[in-house]
C-alpha cells in the first residue's frame, strides 16, 4: 500500500471523499487550483479547493497539505493570505492534511470552535447557512453554533412533574 506523498493524493484520497460525505457535490460545489495573486508577497499562488456550494461567490477555501506534514501557523497564514486576495474574500479557511482539519476565521486568524469544541471537521453543506449568517453578523466570531440538535438534554432521576414541565417547554 502506498503512502500519501503529495497534496494531490491527499485531496483525491482523503479530502474529496470527506466533502462528499458532508453533502458537497464535487462537480457543482468546488473549484480546483484557482490562481490568485498574493499582495503581501507579490507572487502567484493556487487555492487547492475553493468551495462555493452552488453560490456565485465562494464561501470558504481549503488549503491542502500532504498527509505526512504537520500543520503549522505558516500553513494557516498561507490560507488566510489566499482568502484576502482579490476576488476571493471568504470569511473562513480550512487547512488540512487529510487527517487534521483546522478552520480559521480570516479576520482574526483564530481557530474556529464548532459548537464550542475544537473539532476536526468541515461544516456540512447544510450547516453552511448558519456559518455564513454567524460570520456576517460578526466577522470576528470564532465560536460558531452549527449543531442542528434542539432536543432536550437527558436528565436522569427527574420527578414526573419536572419531566412534564420540560416536555411542555
Average residue pLDDT = 87
* Beta-strand content: 15-25%
The overall strand count is 7
- Briefly note the structural class of the backbone: alpha/beta
Major sheet, described briefly? 5 strands, mixed
Provide the helix percentage: 25-40%
How many structural domains can be distinguished in the coordinates?
1
Written description of the protein model:
With 169 residues, this protein is α/β, with parallel strands linked by helices. The protein has one domain (7-168): tt1808, chain A (Alpha-Beta Complex), CATH 3.90.1570.30. It has four helices and seven strands; from the N terminus they run αβββαβββαβα. The protein has helices at 7-21, 73-83, 128-137, 160-168, and strands at residues 30-38, 43-51, 60-64, 92-96, 101-105, 113-114, 143-144. A five-stranded mixed β-sheet has the order 1-2-3-4-5, with helices on both faces. A hairpin with an 8-residue loop joins strand 2 and strand 3 (60-64). The radius of gyration is 19 Å and the shape is elongated. The protein starts with 6 loop residues before the first helix and ends with a helix.
Amino acid at each position: 500500500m502506498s503512502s500519501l506523498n503529495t497534496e494531490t493524493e491527499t485531496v483525491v484520497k482523503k479530502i474529496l471523499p470527506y466533502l462528499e460525505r458532508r453533502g458537497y457535490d464535487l462537480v457543482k460545489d468546488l473549484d480546483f487550483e484557482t490562481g490568485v495573486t498574493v499582495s503581501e508577497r507579490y507572487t502567484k499562488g493556487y487555492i487547492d479547493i475553493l468551495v462555493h456550494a452552488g453560490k456565485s461567490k465562494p464561501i470558504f477555501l481549503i488549503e491542502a497539505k500532504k498527509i505526512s506534514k504537520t500543520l503549522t501557523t505558516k500553513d494557516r497564514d498561507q490560507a488566510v493570505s489566499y482568502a484576502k486576495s482579490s476576488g476571493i474574500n471568504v470569511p473562513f479557511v480550512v487547512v488540512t492534511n487529510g487527517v487534521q482539519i483546522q478552520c480559521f476565521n480570516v479576520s482574526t486568524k483564530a481557530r474556529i470552535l464548532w459548537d464550542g469544541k475544537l473539532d476536526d471537521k468541515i461544516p456540512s453543506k447544510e450547516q453552511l447557512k448558519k456559518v455564513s449568517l454567524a460570520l456576517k453578523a460578526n466577522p470576528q466570531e470564532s465560536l460558531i453554533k452549527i449543531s442542528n440538535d434542539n432536543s432536550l438534554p437527558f436528565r436522569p432521576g427527574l420527578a414526573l412533574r419536572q419531566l412534564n414541565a420540560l416536555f411542555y417547554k
